[in-house]
Amino acid sequence: MSFAIPHDDLQALEDRVQAALRTTDDSALDVLGYGEVTLVLKLTTPHGAYACKRLPVFPTLERYERYTSTLADYLEKLEQAGIRAAPTRLWHERLSGGRIVAYCVQEALPAERLCSRLLRDQPQSWAVDFFKRFLDHVDRAVTPAFGLDAQASNWIDLDGELTYLDVTTPLLRDDQGRERLDVPLFLTSLPWVLRDAVRLTMSKSIFDKFYSSRGVLLDFLGNLHKERLEKLIPLFLEVANPRLSAPITAQEVAAYYRGDARMWELIQRLRKADRFWHRNVLRLPYPFLLPPEIDR
Ligand SMILES: Nc1ncnc2c1ncn2[C@@H]1O[C@H](COP(=O)(O)OP(=O)(O)O)[C@@H](O)[C@H]1O
Ligand SMILES: [Mg+2]
């Protein structure tokens, strides 16, 4: 299943993003979703609607090409593991000085089928059925070299089949256990005060959880707090724990979430300070679009 990239429309979208960065006014952008790392924009064209995920600007063509091949490998491995991913294509444009701006483009899938939303709207029996399918997917796919960021908001349920959306940060490790992703590049939206510290100490622990079934599950469950779906946690633990050698408790989930939420809150606060510094002191445009406050 593939689709044609609407080149001219993407060019126009990128022009609108550039204008938003220059003027700090993002009202001309149609935001589909805010993640922790990317901003997902909706592009509506006469031929259909697309979800466009703007990647950090690549300093060189070579680094962009490396990303292209890592993403292709990740999509292939997802398929081999029997996980359906939203068909994804890359679009890019050369900027001055050899830099590359790129987007991961997918068809906009029906937002009302987003699993975080269905967990809210559907009866408990749906939630249990979803969660069993979810566990099967995670067990099947996750290895020390292949990770998943499996939060409920990263899946869409289409005709009873789970479709994975969040492929922009391919979670693949090489034989030495190093991320194949250009981690420093994907951390460039962090303020400079944090960048080196995160790169050296935190990035391994940020990523580790995605490479074990238990870690992925704990992250999924912790995230239910953020989604205001924590009432489902005891039910899900009943389903999951018989499968685990070390059962997870509700307390462990809550403690995990507090730690994770605190980290992201700190990062968002520092990003805002960095943006203030750029705009008001350096008088330079701040090169990222930040999500609004998340209520945790
Ligand atoms: N193909 C798509 N169709 C519809 N909505 C999407 C699509 N991709 C992403 N979204 C929306 O945007 C949100 C963030 O996208 P995601 O790919 O998970 O990026 P992030 O890395 O920022 O979490 C999703 O939770 C979903 O609400
Ligand atoms: Mg996501």
Give the CA-CA distance, first to last residue: 38 Å
Total DSSP helices: 9
Strand runs, count: 8
Q: What is the H/E order?
A: HEEEHEEEHHEEHHHHH
Mean pLDDT equals 88
The chain-level structural class is alpha+beta
Range of helix content: 40-55%
Q: Could you tell me the radius of gyration in angstroms?
A: 19 Å
Low-pLDDT windows of residues: none
Q: Into which percentage range does the β-strand content fall?
A: 5-15%
* Widest sheet, order of strands: 1-2-3-6-5
The major β-sheet equals: 5 strands, antiparallel
Tally of individual domains: 1
Distinct ligand kinds: adenosine-5'-diphosphate, magnesium ion
User: Which overall shape is indicated by the principal axes computed on the Cα atoms?
Assistant: globular
Description:
By secondary structure, the protein is of the alpha+beta class. It has one domain. Helices cover 47% and strands 15% of the residues. It has nine helices and eight strands. The strands form two sheets. It has a five-stranded antiparallel sheet with strand order 1-2-3-6-5, sandwiched between helices. A three-stranded mixed sheet has the order 4-8-7. β5 and β6 form a beta hairpin. α4 crosses α8 and α7 packs across α9. The chain is globular. The structure holds adenosine-5'-diphosphate and magnesium ion (MG). Adenosine-5'-diphosphate binds next to β1 and β3.
Quick summary of this structure?
Helix content is 47%, strand content 15%. The protein has 296 residues and is of the alpha+beta class. The chain has one domain (8-269).
